[in-house]
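Q: I'm building a small set of examples for a reading group on sequence design. Run inverse folding on the following structure and report the sequence directly after it, with nothing in between.
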């Protein structure tokens, strides 16, 4: 039978064309929708799983080129996939390139070895340790803001206007009565003993002022005589080393109490702010385990304020979460804490997504604008491999660890029943 119409042009012979080979750079031009341009500037991260070429990252360069709207990075992935290892590699490799790193709170104590390996500063806080930080070391108006944040955290609510005034007056009185730097203990004493003249200036009585400051005094007392005594209630015993390549605040001895962590991080963030403003140059601020902090309104309000300063001071933040639904734990939709937390996430132009559980796919794909293929990939990503969404391009990258890094970054030692280097068995 003879074919008619369009079928006449059909041939059943196999198509014999020689295979065409070209470099990934050439193919990127020929198939721009399949292959994105390589990222080859900045610190080495690992290999691009599709092209095999090296993958490098430098948010400051990309920001300078107008490809990123901010230098911040969101890093999400289920436990044990290598999020911290990636953050640590970015940190130490950036230090080699002359940058500095701050880790304002390390609840697991896993950054200490990293800081020690590169000659950084580790400040360990915890009951029984000699280190004390005076959060009121911050200059000027920072003191009252910080006190208000600490009082809000210990009371678990916002302050009333009369309480704010009582705190302000107590701080002024405490500063007048002390020759050295004012401490939280001085403020608690002043709250409990308001001066009648200062009260009269505000058209109130010492009795009313005492009443206004009662709950504040109880809240702050926790840091003087309660479970947090000895950490923040005296002059600082250490100074932030502005020249250190990395500064880590090790909070692993504080235990699992979230509000102790919040208070320590609030104090640390005040310290850090002074260092960030005083220092110059490009710096990373890494919030490993950020999912533990998102529900703490006073703290994330401070983080939000700090992030606003970030660009002006050359700072890139890294926020590490397990999944986007960590936000649900932050607060209900529309609540202030939730809105600020979502704002912090939205302020991360670079998103690195490690393996996700299948129940998370719809939410993460919607929130981060992933294609169907990218979405399907997320449940299959092996350890150390992530989907990088940088400047509207997607890359699947396997993070390469140097053996020296691997031995310092190892967090699986306990799982394997071995003792990490430097720890007494
Ligand atoms: N790219 C990699 N190549 C080889 N090993 C890796 C890689 N990334 C991480 N690891 C190893 O996997 C283990 C877990 O990594 P890591 O602690 O970074 O995971 P994580 O995602 O931060 O986990 P968690 O959510 O519990 O904090 C570590 O011992 C680390 O050395
Ligand atoms: Mg980790």
């Amino acid at each position: 039978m003879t074919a008619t119409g369009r079928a006449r042009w059909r041939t059943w012979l196999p198509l014999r064309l020689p295979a065409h080979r070209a470099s990934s750079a050439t193919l990127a031009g020929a198939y721009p929708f399949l292959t994105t341009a390589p990222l080859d500037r900045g610190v080495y991260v690992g290999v691009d799983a599709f092209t095999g070429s090296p993958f490098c990252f430098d948010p400051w360069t990309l920001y300078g080129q107008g490809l990123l709207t901010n230098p911040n990075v969101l890093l999400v992935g289920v436990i044990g996939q290598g999020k911290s290892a990636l953050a640590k590699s970015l940190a130490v490799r950036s230090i080699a390139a002359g940058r500095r790193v701050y880790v304002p709170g390390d609840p697991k104590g896993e950054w200490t070895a990293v800081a020690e390996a590169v000659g950084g500063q580790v400040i360990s806080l915890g009951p029984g340790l000699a280190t004390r930080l005076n959060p009121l070391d911050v200059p000027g108006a920072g003191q009252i803001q910080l006190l208000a944040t600490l009082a809000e955290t210990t009371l678990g609510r916002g302050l009333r206007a009369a309480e704010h005034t009582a705190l302000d007056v107590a701080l002024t009185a405490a500063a007048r009565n002390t020759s050295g730097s004012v401490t939280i203990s001085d403020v608690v004493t002043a709250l409990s003993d308001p001066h009648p003249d200062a009260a009269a200036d505000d058209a109130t009585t010492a009795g009313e002022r005492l009443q206004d400051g009662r709950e504040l005094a109880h809240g702050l007392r926790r840091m003087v005589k309660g479970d947090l005594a000895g950490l923040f209630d005296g002059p600082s015993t250490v100074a932030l080393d502005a020249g250190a390549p990395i500064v880590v605040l090790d909070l692993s001895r504080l235990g699992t109490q979230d509000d102790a962590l919040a208070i320590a991080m609030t104090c640390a963030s005040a310290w850090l702010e002074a260092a960030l403003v005083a220092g110059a140059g490009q710096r990373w601020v890494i919030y490993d385990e950020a999912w533990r902090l998102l529900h703490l309104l006073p703290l994330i309000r401070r983080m939000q304020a700090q992030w606003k300063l970030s660009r002006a001071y050359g700072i890139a933040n890294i926020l590490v979460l397990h999944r986007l639904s960590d936000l649900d734990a932050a607060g209900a939709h529309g609540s202030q804490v939730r809105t600020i937390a979502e704002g912090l996430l939205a302020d991360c132009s670079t998103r690195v997504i490690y393996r996700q559980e299948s129940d998370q796919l719809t939410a993460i794909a919607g929130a981060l604008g992933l294609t169907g293929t990218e979405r399907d990939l997320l449940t299959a990503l092996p350890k150390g491999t992530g989907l990088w969404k940088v400047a509207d391009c997607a890359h699947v990258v396997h993070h390469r660890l140097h053996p020296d890094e691997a031995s310092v970054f190892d967090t699986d030692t306990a799982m394997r029943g071995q003792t990490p280097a430097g720890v007494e068995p």
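The chain has a mean pLDDT of 86.
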